[in-house]
Each structure stands twice: as C-alpha cells, then as structure tokens.
C-alpha cells in the first residue's frame, strides 16, 4: 500500500489527494475528504467527493493520515553539527557558550552553510517544513552566520520556510557598545530580533537595545528568557515592562522560561497572568534543559524545563522545539519533531490523555508564534504536508508512523 502511494506522488503537476484522513484541525479528529493541490504547490480545494479536474492526477491515499508540516520554532543552525570541533567537557550552558564562541572566531562561512544544510535536510525528511533559527551575532561570529543562513533562506524557500533571529549574543566582559552599534545591521538581515538577557551584564539596557531595534525594523522579538533555575533573578517583569512600552503585545516570544519551575506558585501565577494579558508566547526546549540544567545538584537534579503542564492548561500558547542539534549545547538530535513532542510530554509531566494536545505544540502554535502565513490544511495554504500510516494525533505522538511521506509546497521531499 505504502509503495503505491509513494509512486503516485512522485510526479509534478496538479493532483487530487483522495481517500486521505485530513487533520484540517490539529486539535480535532481527522476528517475524510479530498484535497486538490495546484501545480504551484498550494491547497486549492478541500471537500468531500471532489472530482479530478482535467489535467490533474488522482492519488489514492488509502486511508493515510495527513497532517500539516511540522514547525520547529527554535533552532540554532549556525551551531548544528559543531560538536566535534567544539567539545563541552563540563556539560553546562556556560561551557557550551564558551566552546562555540572559540570555534566561531575562525569558522569559515561555507562551514556554517554545509552543517546547516545537512540538518535542514534531515529535518525536512522527517516532516519539518518551517524552522526559526537563532543566529549568533557578536564579536566572535560577526555576521558570518547570518549571511550564510540568509543565503539558505533564499535557496531553500520552496522546501523549507526559514526565519532568522538576530541573536545579539552577550558574553562575560561583553562590549555592549559593539552590540548596540551592530544590532541595526543584524536586524536588517533577520526576521526577528533576539538575545539572552540573563547573561547580559546590564540586562535593562540590553533589553532596551533589542526592543528598540525590533520596533525600528518592524520585527518581532524572540528572547531566550531565564534559561536557568535561580529564583532570585527572573527577568519577566523587565520584559513585560518593555512589551507594554514598545507596544509589542502579540509580537514577543520567550524561549525556555526555565526559572518558572523554580519560583513559588503564586509568583509563577502572577507571571503567567502577565503572559496571558500581553499575549506572549512561550517555547519549551526539553533537550537543552534536560542536558544542561541542574548539573550542580548532587541529589535529585531538576528537569530544567518550564512549568509545561500548567502553561498548557492556562492557555498560554506553548510550542516545543529542538533548540540545538548535535553541538556543545545538546550532543544528540535527529531533527524529528515527534521525538521532541514525546520528550515534552514525559519531561513536562503531561498526562496520557494529553498525547493529542502535543500535536498543536509542533504545528499550529509555533506557526502562529512565527507569524507564518498560509499554514495548515486549508484552502489557500501551502501544501506542506506529512502523510503517514497513523490512526490519529494520539497515535502519531505516542509511537509515530512506520512510514511517512513529506510534501513541501506540493513536491515530494522525503520518504521514510
Ligand atoms: Zn536556543
């Protein structure tokens, strides 16, 4: 059955996907319907009993499940695959930062592109059709990473929707002046402005620098916020103040939010309410948190994730993402978002009946946080699809498919 589906989708041109079970709503049950994909790779029509228009082919999906392409809203494609050049013997976040900074001083731009393309190809083959990557901008890396990835954003546009975050990277003894005078040039190459205020020497001034540049360039903000478990120094209030002052409601995303797990419940609830009020999205990054956090604990090391289950239940838009793939921050990673979804459920203390609710965390929610236009299984959207032999979303997250076929803008790009 699977081989015959693959053979039918091999060619170009308009085609009608028949006998599929479509997740037109990733939070609901699959719907039996036909889908017409145009020659330029868009979903033209969805409906029951659609007939094959002239010049189009009919592809029989034989009951396969069709889900939207996965969205990985937080990666670091400038760092992926550098593990063998930049070892991190301490296994800590600071050790990883130092290892990469040392490497970035001499890394040729073609090396960034080669490593990034390898990871992008692996992600695409496993069903990811959109990635937002943070890219270091500092005295070590300069603009080499951003320039190399901006070229890939162009050349991969039909296969992968790539967004770049100008990640203004502070280091101990940083030169804030350098970041301040280069943030504009970085923003002009990027789709969002970001950084990691907890390691900045002057977080208040650093946050102003980022929000000002974002507003000046009409870009959203995407921060690494409080990727630590020190309850004495959360920066949420400083961020909220800027979201209000710069009018960035609905345009601010916070990655990690690990410290929320270390705060007393009433304090967490106050911050959660602030996120809801200001329409701030969050992204949990279980691989990096599990690997890097809690290494100084002699007994009962914490998980390092944010309060995943409580954020999900409160309605804060929470996505999950890969963060790092095979680098000094996370030495593992296959690029499979289903793997990330499972880790989120397990390490985030969700329940068995939450399995299906993990799917929106790797599809609709990150698509919304990235501001992706034309996403999902609906008329007028790009035909970025994963066709697989699963029963439903629960089955997909719990065990995954034995076979999957990936379509990007209507073209077959991956088979497993
Ligand atoms: Zn990150």
Overview of the structural elements:
This protein is an alpha/beta fold and 416 residues long. It folds into 2 domains: 2-68 and 376-415, Urease, subunit C, domain 1 (Roll); 70-370, TIM Barrel. The chain is 34% helix and 21% strand. It has 14 helices and 16 strands. Strands 1, 2, 3, 4, 5, 14, 15 and 16 form an 8-stranded mixed sheet that branches. The chain has an 8-stranded parallel sheet with strand order 6-7-8-9-10-11-12-13, with helices on both faces. α4 links the parallel β7 and β8. α3 crosses α4. It is globular. The two termini are 14 Å apart. The model has no long low-confidence stretch (mean pLDDT 95).
Low-pLDDT residue intervals, each spanning 5 or more residues: none
Q: What percentage of residues falls in helices of 4 or more residues?
A: 25-40%
The gross shape turns out to be globular
Q: What percent strand? A: 15-25%
